[in-house]
Write a structure and sequence with these properties.
With about 500 residues, the chain is an all-alpha fold. The protein has one domain (about 45-270, about 285-480): Growth Hormone, Chain: A, CATH 1.20.1250.20. About 70% of the residues lie in helices and about 0% in strands. It is built from 19 helices and no strands. The longest helix has about 35 residues, at about 445-480. The chain is globular and about 65 Å long. It starts with about 35 loop residues before the first helix and ends in a 17-residue tail after the last helix.
Length: about 500
């Protein structure tokens, strides 16, 4: 995986711009310790590249594959809905929306405790065990006899998955410097997009098990995807690593010198790689920072669209555009392929040019262009093209907003709190996305499209409000008038 400048963060006038990955001897490394300063120069540029690439292969790939399964298990309802579940479980009226909604109720509530628990249990134990448990829960969905049983299992699924995504966001943010993050978050989320895109094709294949051992095809979708999840949980047990300052849990992955280099590198960038004792005041005190809620709102408005697409795109293709069952499941994949390409390209550009807000604005504009094409154009081909734009813009903004937030905060427990608020509001976006596309609005689904348009206008408004605030505070810090984040005189907000 390509890397951007891995140099310690300095004032904008002195940050290197040559795209190198090594720390130059004598570079500014405050506020790290003298020991940190020395180990930053013990490795050659080639050795530093190899260390970072090893972290990429082990950490980003593992959590990406696990997130792929997570996203598949929470969004497979659209495929099962048109595969016969709606008839067998009598999903009339708002029952389908209720089944999608209840997941997010428990998902949001259990975000905060999970981000604290992962620090004590360690990522390997916490993430792999909850993955195994929700895999078992997914298998159980395949045996549901009534719609309310399925809804109850979705509540349990929400509890178990609540700790996964914020845990991954938090874990990744502790290993990388700020201008390495967007590409890593993008790669992590691209794998999830592949899951969303290919889940329809997978579901269509699993439907062909119709009648095997007396079970309907939609039941086999749940059962087989649950079994895959359990296998991935076992893989996660062996593939996951600990936090970078945890010597015991990273034994066998990095040598102690290599691990200390990673810690020193992050400390040189933002000074928060070392563990802080848990302090409830520091954890909850982050809630007094208004920009944290701005980031959370950005994420919630973005996931309103991503979840609406994930849950309802097969239904819209089937009922709104007139495609057959097989085509409706398989035509989900191409828009996600474009989303993955856009995600990687904007991630690379964002890290190279150190841009966050403009990337988010670009992706929101893609959605604003695409949504009217879906709802107000009669030609099916043009409507389907609109799906490409909306899927690409909304999904690419997920890692963009994660990076925007991670770049502009400091401190372990503030980072943990922010991961919980970010993903918690993402769950609220999921609740909205679960409700906006209603059966009675077919085939145009105009109320849902209006809601999605409003969400993207809110995204644009928040970025336009945060940007001048960050510019003003950076200028004040340059003049020595204030320390803008966590008491570090060298910290600057990323615009």
């Amino acid at each position: 995986m390509a890397t951007t400048a891995d140099v310690p963060f300095e004032k904008p006038s002195t940050v290197r711009d040559d795209g190198g990955v090594y720390v130059e001897k004598g570079a500014h490394t405050s506020p790290s310790s003298a020991d940190d300063n020395s180990i930053l120069h013990e490795f050659s540029p080639e050795e530093q590249k190899k260390i970072i690439h090893r972290v990429d292969r082990r950490l980003v790939t593992t959590v990406g594959i696990m997130y792929c399964i997570s996203l598949m298990d929470r969004t497979n309802l659209g495929a099962t809905m048109i595969a016969g579940m709606a008839i067998d479980l009598k999903l009339v009226g708002m029952r389908y929306s209720i089944i999608t909604l209840v997941f997010f109720a428990s998902y949001v509530v259990f975000q905060f405790p999970s981000t604290v628990v992962i620090r004590y249990l360690g990522p390997r134990l916490h993430l792999s065990v909850i993955t195994l448990l929700w895999g078992i829960c997914t298998i159980g969905m395949g045996f549901s006899k009534t719609w309310d049983t399925l809804a109850a299992l979705r509540v349990i699924l929400g509890i178990l998955e609540a700790g996964f995504f914020p845990g991954c966001v938090y874990l990744l943010s502790t290993w990388y410097v700020r201008y390495d993050m967007h590409k890593r978050y993008s790669f992590f989320y691209i794998i999830g997009c592949v899951a969303s895109g290919c889940s329809g094709i997978l579901a269509f294949g699993l439907m062909q098990m119709q009648g095997l051992r007396g079970y309907k095809g939609w039941r086999w979708i749940f059962i087989m995807e649950g079994i895959i999840t359990c296998l991935v949980a076992v893989y996660g047990w062996f593939g996951l690593v600990g936090f970078p300052d945890d010597k015991r849990r990273n034994k066998g992955f990095l040598t102690d010198r290599e691990r200390r280099f990673i810690v020193a590198r992050v400390n040189a960038d933002r000074g928060d790689a070392d563990t802080e004792p848990f302090d409830i005041r520091k954890f909850l005190g982050a809630g007094l920072d208004l920009k944290i809620w701005g980031f959370a709102m950005l994420f919630g408005m973005t996931t309103t669209v991503t979840y609406a697409i994930a849950y309802f795109l097969p239904v819209i293709l089937r009922r709104g555009m007139g495609f057959g069952i097989g085509a409706s499941q398989c035509l989900v994949a191409p828009p996600y392929a474009l989303a993955g390409l856009n995600m990687w390209l904007t991630g690379w550009l964002g890290d190279k040019y150190r841009l966050r807000g403009p990337i988010i604005l670009f992706n929101a504009l893609l959605c604003i262009i695409g949504l009217p094409l879906i709802g107000w154009v009669h030609n099916v081909g043009v409507r389907y093209f609109g799906v490409f734009l909306v899927t690409a813009g909304a999904n690419a903004n997920v890692p963009a907003i994660m990076t925007y937030q991670a770049n502009n905060i400091r401190g372990h427990w503030k980072r943990a709190f922010c991961s919980a608020t970010l993903v918690g509001f993402g769950g609220i976006g999921g609740i909205i996305g679960s409700l906006v596309f209603r059966d009675q609005d077919a085939p145009t689904y105009l109320p849902g499209l209006w809601a999605a348009l409003a969400s993207q206008l809110i995204v644009i408004a928040i970025v336009l409000m945060l940007t001048p605030v960050f510019i003003r505070r950076n200028r004040q810090a340059e003049r020595g008038e204030r320390r803008i984040e966590g008491g570090d005189a060298n910290f600057r907000y990323t615009l």
